Amino acid sequence: MKPAFTLCLAMVLGLSACGDLKLRKMRSDDKGPEEFTVLPVKPLQNPSDYTALPEPNPAAGNLVDATPKADAIVALGGTPVIGASAKIPASDTALLRRTNRFGTAPDIRNVLATEDAEIRKSKSRMLRFQLNQKDLYSKVYEKQTLDAHAEIAKFRSAGVLTPAVPPK
User: Is the overall model pTM greater than 0.85, yes or no?
Assistant: First the structure.
């Protein structure tokens, strides 16, 4: 009985040690805004007549949330644009020309996903031998992270007007 229990315990511990560590930590330690609480929540309403409800249509809004995309844009500080065929403002054409000067890759999402998977795979090998295995996304991309406070200090010393930043 005792050897079987010991073997079972060793197998459970061994199996749990081989768990797939995710590179993203789902709970953040910083005090920044929670991205899922940005949208205003409208109260649910009961219709006066359930037989007069429109047919369900996933592409259309609902009775309570008729314009969800426009509401999200307003909640994030933007100006809602009605319709998907909104033109780029004339004031942004120079910016658009500048950003497209080297062309655009139609499969950029696939390219970035492949590169991201390679970086995570190579970094996870280095983190595999730690006793306290914390394979965090920010740890993997630490060398590519921009220090906002250092950059804003550099721009301010060069005389560039910059917006205010949160305190350290």
Answer: no
Tokens linked to 166: 């949160």
How far is 121 from 123, CA to CA, in rounded Å?
Answer: 6
Give residue 81's identity as a one-letter amino acid code: V
DSSP labels for the chain? -HHHHHHHHHHHHHHHHT----SS-SS--S-S--GGG-SPPPPP---S-GGGPPPP-TTS--SS-S-HHHHHHHHTT-----STTPPPPGGGHHHHHHHTTT---TTHHHHHHHHHHHHHHHHHHHHTT-SS----HHHHTGGG---HHHHHHHHHHTT---------
User: Per residue in 116-146, pLDDT tens?
Assistant: 888 877 766 655 566 665 656 777 777 888 8
> Where in the chain are the domains?
28-83, 107-168
